[in-house]
Amino acid sequence: MFKKFIFVLCALFISFTLFSCGGGGDDKPIEKLDVIKIYGPFDTFDPSTDYVHDLILELTNVDVQYDFLPQDGNTANTKLYLDIAGQAQYHLLKLYPDQFNQLRSVGALLDITELLEEYGPNIVDNVSDEVWKTAIFDGKIYGVPQKNPANNINSALFLRKDIFVKHDIPLPTTLTEFKEALVALKNAEGSNFVPFSPSSHNIEPIRGAFGIVCDWIEQEDGSLVYWTETQAFQDYALYMKELLDLGLLQDGYLTTPNYGANSRAGLQNGTVGVTLDAWWSGNGIINGIAASLEKTEQEIIDNAGDYLHFIDSLLGDENYGTPGKGQAKMDYSITFFFAIPKYMEKYAIAVIKWMNEKLEAENFKRLTIGEEGVHHEVIDGKYYPILTPDENDKIPFDSFNKGDYFLTGIREDDYAQYWQCRARKNPRQQFVWEGMNTPEQKETVGIYDKLGLAPGFSIYGGAKQKLSLLTEEFLVSVITGQGTQMTHQEFINKLKAEAKLEESKTEVNDWYQTTK
To answer: What CA–CA distance (Å, rounded) separates 116 from 356?
Structure first.
């Protein structure tokens, strides 16, 4: 199906290139800008009623209509490619990297190099050189890249520290210590207690101890291999199997539907010792602990360090992994590209001018965190949201709850600071975010994904989902001992035959060798 759409795109754009009269020099005004987005952040979200939508109109004098793609990835891609093939009148596209690369590769996107130079100084000056490289092909720029707002560590093991302390169990740092701590918890708490209840087969804080927290691993010769091809991948699976065989994981781990559904609730009520979670879950977790202990939320947050401990990455030791080494993936990646369909060239100047105006320094601040003293405040050079209800009993900073949705590029340095208003929106979330993102943790175990600044891939982009699915199936079979059993080499052969592993590796390495 996907090849069919690419064929249609190629045919359309060959003819479009041959017969189009151009029009790139026109500064054609736009009565209503039409931006196709990936999907709405909420099922009931109506952008036209949002505060930021109206603020954009006020600051730029341009009204915007937002069209949604379906939330299912395959369906979204199908609609996107068919819409572009049919020359749907979208002035600007918000694209995932793989979507950007697919459309660029068939000539569907406009070269905006000269337009940026003439009409987009705020855009050009506020994207770093290394980020710009992701949008440049043969010296031409086909989209405006937007990197993630801050280099966060997102995933960690969450430990109920008070339970460890109650039984005088040391907080673990290595893989062996972690296993021993789980055994001690099981013995101390009894049969109704679950020492470790992860909600996924993909446990980055444990993968990191084996040196494979990212999906592509650099080898001694400088090439990249998919993580499933490494010995460390096999060692990770066997370590998890050992934890399961020792009875340290919840019943039905990996083999029952929604096996991790009660992980967070168990951590909150004290029937689980360790879970896997993300920093943005902090609010609910701390509130849940307070409720289970019949304490106020304020009592728990005032002493949150007594109840929660975070491990971004365990370390390898003499028994598992590489002794003393760990990895925690820091989020440093291209989240979106903003591109103009080639057939909408006559509107391109107006679109670039609009995007540029949104990135004027004061406009950008107002569009992301509002006005100082009204929506946010600055304390010791740091940005904090104003959360005291106003005269209408509304939280001022709530006006920007969906502000990210309206971005069409960022001022990278500024947004890294402004974005922290969101992390500080409540003290519980702030505690978890700061606890997982200490300077020490980032210095000792933080790493960047080798493909973080990749522009998207034609082959690997299409094969990624299949690679991930087959990897999950193999991990489940090894860890649980259930399902179809195969050797590691048989598994790799399956990836090559059914998920284009070799072709993906070639494509990824061709890109990596030219950029590293």
So the answer is: 9
Residue boundaries of the structural domains of the chain: 15-150+335-413, 155-329
pLDDT tens by residue, 445-488: 999 999 988 877 889 988 998 999 999 999 999 999 998 889 99
Inter-axis angle of helices 97-105 and 73-85, nearest 10: 30
pLDDT at 21: 38
SS3 513: helix
Contacts of 126 (CB under 8 A, 6+ apart): 359, 409, 410, 411, 412, 413, 414
User: Is 224 strand, coil or helix?
Assistant: strand
- State how far the Cα of 372 lies from the Cα of 401, in Å rounded to an integer: 17
* Contact criterion met (CB below 8 Å) for 229 and 492: yes
Q: What are phi and psi of 88, to 5 degrees?
A: -60, 145
Note the pTM of the prediction, 2 decimals. 0.81
What pLDDT score does 2 carry? 44
Q: Cβ of 72: how many Cβ atoms within 10 Å? A: 11
Same CATH fold assignment for domains 15-150+335-413 and 155-329: yes
pLDDT tens for residues 82-141?
Answer: 999 999 989 999 998 889 988 998 999 999 999 999 999 999 999 999 899 999 988 999
* Highest CATH level, class, for 15-150+335-413: alpha beta
- Give me the helices (H) in 360-500, please: 361-369, 412-418, 420-423, 427-436, 439-444, 459-480, 488-498
Q: Which CATH architecture does the domain made up of 155-329 adopt?
A: 3-Layer(aba) Sandwich (3.40)
Number of alpha carbons in the 13 Å side-chain half-sphere of residue 377:
8
CB atoms closer than 10 angstroms to residue 412: 15
Of 159-173, 297-311, 430-444, highest mean pLDDT? 159-173
With CA atoms as reference, report the closest residue to 202 among 475, 482, 449, 485.
475
173-203 burial string, b = 16+ CB within 10 Å, else e? Answer: bbbbbbbebbbbbbebbeeebbbbbbbebbb
How far apart are the C-alpha atoms of 159 and 157, rounded to whole Å?
A: 6
- For residues 111 and 37, what is the distance between their CA atoms, to the nearest angstrom? 20
Alpha carbon of 224 to those of 229, 230, 232: distances in Å? 10, 11, 14
